[in-house]
């Protein structure tokens, strides 16, 4: 999977960044990053199984965008070393970390053993990526713990 970054890789990263700036994509990303906090496969499926909602459209948009970008890496069209840099794919690691704890159950309940597979392959495919994912998972665990403590006080 690893290949040295070229100027073509840099151009593709800039194109991916440009796509992330599209207004509806910004709304979708904002929702997934800041408002969508699934605690289980069932929480995820509530949104996934509500096809006429804005949240469902946003979920599909964000997930398919990052899966497509990760597919470029998996297929060798984009340098993994460049892509896993925080400024290029930090958000992908964050959204993957949100569903990672229940990914196996989610795939089973969806009947889709390859759901999120390109993202998973990239997020776990190298030592640097695994280190990055572990850091994001730890940060999310702390965030959830803090939120739980705050909720108990209120």
Order of helices and strands: HHHHHHHHH
Shape: globular
Biggest beta sheet summary: none
Mean pLDDT: 94
Distance between the termini: 48 Å
> In oligomeric terms, what are we looking at?
single chain
Provide key terms for this protein.
76% helix, mainly alpha, 154 residues
Write the layout of secondary structure elements.
Blueprint: H1 7-20, H2 23-35, H3 41-48, H4 54-74, H5 80-83, H6 86-99, H7 103-110, H8 117-124, H9 127-153
Helix pairs in contact: 2-4, 3-7, 4-8, 6-9
Describe the structure.
- By secondary structure, the chain is mainly α.
- 76% of the residues lie in helices and 0% in strands.
- It is built from 9 helices and no strands.
- The chain is globular, with a radius of gyration of 16 Å.
Short summary:
The chain has 154 residues and is mostly helical. The protein has helices at 7-20, 23-35, 41-48, 54-74, 80-83, 86-99, 103-110, 117-124, 127-153.
